[in-house]
Amino acid sequence: MAMGWFYLSVLALCSLGLMCILSTIYWISYWQGGFAWDGTILMFNWHPVLMVTGMVVFYSAASLVYRLPQSWVGPKLPWKFGHAAMHLLAFILTVLGLHAVFDFHSRRKIPNLYSLHSWLGITTVFLFACQWFLGFAVFLLPWASVRLRSLLKPIHVFFGASILSLAIASVISGINEKLFSSLRNGTNSYSRLPSEAVFANCSGMLVVVFGLLVLYILLASSWKRPELGMQAERQALLHGGE
């Protein structure tokens, strides 16, 4: 029963993450003209999709690797590789999203990094890069001592959750900024809540709900890999709670 509830929760979370990506794609495709990689506004349109996919959904999936019951037993090294590889994929998508917006701005002679959204976003990406390299160097490579890993683990976990929180704030502020920019005329202004504004606001709320659920799972003690003394109990849970 407990395992059934666990996998139902995982399925619901995966579905919600997929909805975040698909709703962003639909918003950009239907109201913003679609996508291209040619330096035009259509290239900029990749930015929200790649950032939601990389910095929110894939980042969350990588962070939740150690919450899977299968990771509670056996060697941790394969799970460490999976954790690092998924974060690397999320980072690559994020860099592509940044390239889309910076290249568009440079072609149009638009200043970079002037808005609060851009400050939040670049801070998030910088922390993400530092977090990944620190995690790779300390927790994946064999040189670090057990004591050093024990000292850095709480910091690693704290910044992992903080980066996700900043990513959510960046996405929400980015959606808001995009809507203020594109819905400026009197008959279709943002304040009149046209259909695009309603849909994009709902997409933003999906991201918030998804992120809060991920943060809850990351912080809830019942979802964490057990200490050595609790392994037997969690193994029983993994095999059906018998």
From TrEMBL:
<keyword id="KW-0479">Metal-binding</keyword>
<keyword id="KW-0560">Oxidoreductase</keyword>
<dbReference type="GO" id="GO:0140571">
    <property type="term" value="F:transmembrane ascorbate ferrireductase activity"/>
</dbReference>
<feature type="transmembrane region" description="Helical">
    <location>
        <begin position="122"/>
        <end position="143"/>
    </location>
</feature>
<dbReference type="Pfam" id="PF03188">
    <property type="entry name" value="Cytochrom_B561"/>
</dbReference>
<dbReference type="InterPro" id="IPR006593">
    <property type="entry name" value="Cyt_b561/ferric_Rdtase_TM"/>
</dbReference>
<feature type="transmembrane region" description="Helical">
    <location>
        <begin position="49"/>
        <end position="69"/>
    </location>
</feature>
<comment type="function">
    <text>Transmembrane reductase that uses ascorbate as an electron donor in the cytoplasm and transfers electrons across membranes to reduce iron cations Fe(3+) into Fe(2+) in the lumen of the late endosome and lysosome. Reduced iron can then be extruded from the late endosome and lysosome to the cytoplasm by divalent metal-specific transporters. It is therefore most probably involved in endosomal and lysosomal cellular iron homeostasis.</text>
</comment>
<feature type="transmembrane region" description="Helical">
    <location>
        <begin position="81"/>
        <end position="102"/>
    </location>
</feature>
<keyword id="KW-1278">Translocase</keyword>
<dbReference type="GO" id="GO:0031902">
    <property type="term" value="C:late endosome membrane"/>
</dbReference>
<feature type="transmembrane region" description="Helical">
    <location>
        <begin position="155"/>
        <end position="175"/>
    </location>
</feature>
<dbReference type="InterPro" id="IPR043205">
    <property type="entry name" value="CYB561/CYBRD1-like"/>
</dbReference>
<keyword id="KW-0472">Membrane</keyword>
<comment type="subunit">
    <text>Homodimer.</text>
</comment>
<keyword id="KW-0349">Heme</keyword>
<keyword id="KW-0249">Electron transport</keyword>
<protein>
    <recommendedName>
        <fullName>Lysosomal membrane ascorbate-dependent ferrireductase CYB561A3</fullName>
        <ecNumber>7.2.1.3</ecNumber>
    </recommendedName>
</protein>
<feature type="transmembrane region" description="Helical">
    <location>
        <begin position="7"/>
        <end position="29"/>
    </location>
</feature>
<keyword id="KW-0813">Transport</keyword>
<keyword id="KW-0408">Iron</keyword>
<feature type="transmembrane region" description="Helical">
    <location>
        <begin position="198"/>
        <end position="219"/>
    </location>
</feature>
<feature type="domain" description="Cytochrome b561">
    <location>
        <begin position="12"/>
        <end position="219"/>
    </location>
</feature>
<keyword id="KW-1133">Transmembrane helix</keyword>
<keyword id="KW-0458">Lysosome</keyword>
<dbReference type="GO" id="GO:0046872">
    <property type="term" value="F:metal ion binding"/>
</dbReference>
<dbReference type="GO" id="GO:0005765">
    <property type="term" value="C:lysosomal membrane"/>
</dbReference>
<keyword id="KW-0325">Glycoprotein</keyword>
<keyword id="KW-0967">Endosome</keyword>
<keyword id="KW-0812">Transmembrane</keyword>
